[in-house]
Amino acid sequence: MENENKKLSRRALLAGVAFAGVVGTVIAATPVVAEEAEVTTGPAPDLSQLTHEKIELVAPPYVHAHEQATTAAPKVVEFTLMIEEKEMVIDDLGTTVQAMTYNGSVPGPLMVVHEGDYVELTLVNPASNMLQHNIDFHSATGALGGGGLTLVNPGEQVKLRFKATRAGVFVYHCAPGGPMIPWHVVSGMNGAIMVLPRDGLKDGKGNPLKYDHIFYIGEQDYYIPRDREGNFKSYESAGDGYEDMLAVMKTLTPTHVVFNGAAGALTGEHAMKAKVGETVLIVHSQANRDTRPHLIGGHGDYVWDTGKFRNPPQVDLETWFIAGGSAGAALYKFLEPGVYAYVNHNLIEAVELGATAHFTVEGTWDDDLMTQVQPPTPIE
Amino acid sequence: MKVIASRANPSPSLWLPGLLLCSLLALIAVQSGLVPFPAAGATIERPETIIVPPRSFSSRLAGEFVRDRVPVDAPMATIERDRPIEIMKFQVGVFDYARCVADGACEAAAPRRKADGDVPVTGVNFNDAKDYARWLSAQTGETWRLPTVEEWAFAAGSRLVDHALGIETDSANPAERWIATYEREAALGAAASAKPEPRGAFGENELGVADLGGSVWEWTATCDGRTTLGIDGGVLTHIESCGVRILEGRHRAPMSAFIRDGRSGGCSVGTPPDNLGFRLVRERPWYAPLAELARRITG
């Protein structure tokens, strides 16, 4: 019955927000009222006794310092996301997109909390921006993931608190209503949050899993319009390019599929680093489109392909599937040194559209795992 | 292939006695336009060239080298050249190349990065470069061709980049070399502009050759290949692979002959050349020394 009510209210809210997207901000108040009615059925939380912790977010692929498991009581974890509309270069040709970003990066930063913590987010839409924005946390319950309570005009800020009740990695994204939703998402306005079990990650048999490094890879599909000669077009503002981009979006054929906002953003001098014997946790989000990560020359030792930590991880994977609109996590211990490519194993997307990242891994070569028995020699 | 200092192009010595007589004839021939030097009456303007005078220089051999089962830097060869090379001062330009396309002798270039003005042609493969050389030769009545890696190094002078890693790699750990190569190429790629710039923008070397090691890599005639060396450095085996040719520029890059746009991604983790172009050398005809002498006499 409760589920039934939720469905109904979600549908009502969807309609409300779609309407709000067309008419403007005033109507956006409607879902707020509907959601508040639902919230009051639970006990009002007393958070006065809880510790408040303010976290400074860092730009991907790096992640702010955090405990992998905790014995502390649940906290209120405070984050601030500053919305920034700005032009970004997305490939080595100098192609640009009028990006919409959380904290200036595509994807937005990864937030880490523990199950049972309260996430308290301040969302700031500076007056220098042109557009209305909000945030929908897939990890949150109610109000369109918070989207219904966070719509802010340029010059406004809003504070949302939700309880992180489900452990896993989850997408967050802007969802200001109607056609604005996919447009904002494919303009870069998405990121992820990781809700760790309080006792940390487990291998599915109750044994703890730890990582030495965590990397957050946000995969972004872009739909950049071209001129008659086939060259990518650039626009003065996001609004100027809206109609053209929508037409490309409707083809469902991205012009770019990239990691960390731009082709080559995680290669060369920006390649990620690890050492043989170290374990990395790779969090991979795709807010819009399916993807299939693969570590060339390595594996997924433990993979939560749907990203939710109460499910036992799959083991020994070659490639894993992350559904559009979700995040997944893969744990891997590097066993051989070398240069590893981490790709979307639709190899056309990896090579032609940009979905490639690199790890350089130093350490001692293990001949037992692999050896070149005979180097290339003329055929006898 | 010998991995020792080689003496290229042994010098002819028999023409010396007849020099004075011949030079007179040559002078007359050149002045009257009887021989195509400089391409009198040609339908196109003769490309500006630089004559690189003979000297001794060093260049690493082309291709991959393996010693004692471990990949190593290509050996450095000391080469004494006693004949000059005549090489284009600039890389072949878009307008030059467009004339070959207009004549139906070259396929259209497919530049990855569009640029305006008198920029080098980019987005050309090895076969395009050969087609252009054939066309230019027919237009000028001269013989134009791609330089070899050795000739390119000869003309590059101080702009030649030694691509050796110069590190002692642990024979038991192939990854050391992979990582070192990756990081070196990444640094090179990050250091400079990738856009084709107007010809001359990257300056000249001490010989007057322009734009070496700029944003456009140059096809050479040299085939890729693999050479196995013994512990003493002697050649054990050598296999040439001419489907892949060597490009020279900011770093040396082997590339399949049909590729117009060097790309990286997936499991190819190297840094590709930014743009693919070329310049040509003019084969020196038998009377070149006479013509040069004649030119010197006439000032």
What structural class is derived from the secondary structure elements of chain B?
alpha+beta
- Give the C-level CATH assignment of the largest domain in chain A: Mainly Beta
Q: Indicate the proportion of strand residues of chain B.
A: 15-25%
Number of domains of chain B: 2
Taking the alpha carbons of the first and last residues of chain A, their distance comes to: 76 Å
Oligomer: heterodimer
How would you state the average pLDDT of chain B, rounded?
83
CATH fold call of the largest domain in chain B? paralog of FGE (formylglycine-generating enzyme)
Helical content of chain B stands at 25-40%
β-strand number of chain A: 21
Shape of chain A: flat
How many DSSP H or I helices of chain B?
Answer: 6
State the major sheet of chain A.
Answer: 6 strands, mixed
**Overall number of structural domains of chain A:** 2
Describe the structure.
The complex is a heterodimer of chains A (380) and B (299). Chain A is α+β, with helices and mostly antiparallel strands. Chain A folds into two domains: 7-35 and 50-199, Sandwich (Immunoglobulin-like), CATH 2.60.40.420; 213-362, Sandwich (Immunoglobulin-like). Chain A has five helices and 21 strands. The longest helix of chain A is centred in the N-terminal third of the chain and has 22 residues, at 2-23. Chain A is flat. With 299 residues, chain B is α+β, with helices and mostly antiparallel strands. Chain B folds into two domains: 12-38 and 288-298; 49-283, paralog of FGE (formylglycine-generating enzyme) (Alpha-Beta Complex), CATH 3.90.1580. Chain B contains six helices and 13 strands. Chain B has helices at residues 19-32, 94-102, 126-140, 149-156, 174-191, 288-298, and strands at 6-8, 49-52, 55-60, 64-67, 70-72, 76-81, 85-88, 144-145, 217-229, 235-248, 253-256, 276-277, 281-282. In chain B, strands 4, 5, 9, 10, 11 and 12 form a six-stranded mixed sheet that branches. Chain B has a four-stranded antiparallel sheet with strand order 2-7-13-8. A three-stranded mixed sheet of chain B has the order 1-6-3, with helices on one face. In chain B, helix 1 (19-32) crosses helix 6 (288-298). The longest helix of chain B has 18 residues, at 174-191. The radius of gyration of chain B is 21 Å and the shape is globular. Chain B starts with 5 loop residues before the first strand and ends with a helix. The model of chain B is unreliable at 1-12 and 27-42 (pLDDT under 50). The A-B interface holds A 92-94, 231, 267-269, 271, 296-297, 336-339, 341, 343, 347, 350-352, 354, 356, 358, 360-365, 367, 372, 375-378 and B 66, 69, 112-114, 170, 172-176, 178-179, 182-183, 185-187, 189-190, 194-195, 226, 228, 237, 239, 263-269, 271, 274.
